[in-house]
Amino acid sequence: MTWNTYYTGTGQPRPQAWLPPAPPWRTFPRQSAGAVFQPPEGLTEAVNAALCLRRPLLLTGPPGSGKSTVIEQVALELGLGPVLRWQITSRSTLADALYRYDALGRIHAHRLSRNHDDASAVVDDIAAFLQLGPLGTALLPTRRPRALLVDEIDKADLDLPGDLLDVLERGEYTIVELLRESRAAAEVRTWDSGAVHLVEDGRVRCSEFPFIVMTSNGEQEMPPAFLRRCVRYTMPPPTVALMRDVVARHLGLDVPDHSPEAELIQEFVERVGAGETVAVDQLLSTLHILNGTPVTDAGERERVKRLLMKDLSRA
Ligand SMILES: Nc1ncnc2c1ncn2[C@@H]1O[C@H](COP(=O)(O)OP(=O)(O)O)[C@@H](O)[C@H]1O
Ligand SMILES: [Mg+2]
Q1: Which CATH class for the 33-234 domain?
Q2: Considering Cα of 110, then 113, then 117, then 120, what sign does the dihedral take?
């Protein structure tokens, strides 16, 4: 039983009050969501087609349908390394996703070192002020393709999808700041924490196209030239059988027929089928709290359910 009155609203300190253990997806060290993902019908074919063709996979579907989690499972199964994540906003640019150059920071550091008494302390290493972004890191030469998530691409500026495809067709880019300074080689920080890569002659070219998953909530239509170069898959509405598997994987819970938990799953599937926006994680959270809680207060149970299972498209 997870549900209890921890906070009472009396303002009386109870520093030793018992708190419940966190749900498995809110504990440290963070567990990979990929290990417990259950692919809906047809998704594995779409992933395999994208892998075979070395083309991006475009996943469309409502919030909470599992789009951002798919790549975790693919990377985990196929040993593609930690997933590189590029979270798109209306301000995202292709240049920032390739690399960033901190020109101001470099000028500042140069000035500081010039003020130093010791002349040998004057350093001006451009590499310290360059960092590859998620896309720039995904295009580094590697033995296995890297996994790159381009999350919520429909939030992008209109030009971004086209610009991105252009880079992906070529599989290479140039760091003009290194070219300009005729640097033969520079150790540049990558998007992976702490790692550096030796960039020669200011050019980066992949040896394998990365495995890319792009997600979209369908807020914006993508141009046909973009769609032509992707494998597309729309997350289907959830089924009772799939949700039972998801619940079993996440919560280790075998839901008996005709139980309150089975009813909750049924209701979730019906609501999503009727066009409401309710996410899988809302169902999991509700089951986590209510599972095993004796229905002593049916009113409270109903209130908790309503609180957690609210339609996401409404206030
Ligand atoms: N088919 C599924 N199997 C297992 N977990 C799922 C599934 N679909 C969604 N989830 C869980 O629901 C949550 C939301 O998924 P997420 O990938 O963030 O959705 P989206 O990117 O579509 O908004 C995650 O915690 C994920 O583990
Ligand atoms: Mg997402």
Answers
A1: alpha beta
A2: negative
